[in-house]
Amino acid sequence: MAGQNAAPLLKVEGLKQYFRVSKSYTVKAVDNVSFEIYPGETYGLVGESGSGKSTLMNIIGVLDRQTEGTYFLEGKDVNKMDDSMRSAIRNKRIGFVFQNFNLLPKANALKNVMVPLLYSTEKEKNQKERAMEMLKMVGMEERAFHKPNELSGGQKQRVAIARAMINDPAIILADEPTGALDSKTGHMVMDLFHKLHEEQGKTIVLITHSQELAAETKRIVTILDGNIVSDNGGEG
Fold first, then answer.
1. 91, 116 Cβ separation under 8 angstroms
2. Around Cβ 11, how many Cβ atoms within 10 Å?
3. Can you list the alpha helix ranges (DSSP code H) found in 48-205?
4. Parallel, antiparallel, or unpaired: how do β-strands 26-37 and 76-77 relate?
5. Residue from 152, 138, 140, 236 nearest 195 by CA
6. 11: which of 3, 146, 193, 221 lies 20 to 30 Å off by Cα?
7. What pLDDT does 24 receive?
């Protein structure tokens, strides 16, 4: 894995984000945050509710624009991208895994995994084959034609991980991925993330309030009141 000998996969400098809550006041959700993420590493972004970690995740995931600062992903200035370019980046270079799975309730597992390919020019047969490969990778090929209401929480999250992986993203953002799961199932999901990292060299950023969960990553960045208050620099 490339690690810190390579150029940063992601670099943010002086990020700030303000939210207007009334005519007279603003809330600074992220304040002058700067750090780099290197390819092939695992990161834990830790903070309690309201700390600013979700805002930072939305900026990194190109779901929101920061008020100030710069953000480079794979050497490209995200700030200078128009909406269509940002949408393409989200779809092809970033894989998202959410606490509540965010699966389409009326679509089966196979079709849910195919969602990021919606605007692909690839033949549908090839898309289905690739989606099935992703389901096989997470041990869900036998549930390919089951809808979310026919799956357990852990199975739903494995489908969500398969969906996140289908475009071979540069980075996976996992937002409280075990938050809706029991302890045993949560460990199984974390084992899958470890497998993706160890066998495929995937860069994974785990956003969580749990220090215990973050301890499973190489580098832990702790955010409080919109500021980074500790960063082990990959020494853990």
1. yes
2. 17
3. 53-60, 83-93, 109-114, 124-137, 153-165, 183-200
4. unpaired
5. 138
6. 193
7. 54
- CA 104, CA 139: separation in Å to the nearest integer? 20
Q: Which residues contact 158 (CB under 8 A, 6 or more apart)?
A: 138, 139, 140, 189, 192
Report which of 7, 49, 30 is spatially closest to residue 229, judged by C-alpha positions: 30
CA 126 to each of CA 121, 123, 163, 168: distance values in angstroms, whole numbers, following the listed order = 10, 5, 15, 15
Q: Coil, strand, or helix at residue 166?
A: coil
* Nearest to 202, CA basis, from 38, 78, 11: 38
What CA–CA distance (Å, rounded) separates 169 from 180? 24
Q: What is the pLDDT of residue 127?
A: 94
| pLDDT for position 35 | 85
As given in the structure block, the two tokens for residue 142 are 């036998």
pLDDT of amino acid 91: 93
pLDDT of amino acid 19: 62
Alpha-carbon distance of 161 to 5, in angstroms, equals 28
This prediction has a pTM of: 0.89
Q: How far is CA 95 from CA 22, 49, 69, 166, 231, in A?
A: 34, 23, 23, 8, 24
Residue written as tokens 């208050």? Answer: 229
pLDDT given at position 236? 42
Neighbours of 22 (CB within 10 A): 7
Q: Name the one residue in this structure whose structure tokens are 């920061």.
A: 66
The dihedral over CA atoms of 114, 118, 123, 129, expressed in degrees to the nearest 10, equals: 0
State the virtual CA torsion across 62, 33, 165, 204 in degrees, nearest 10: 180
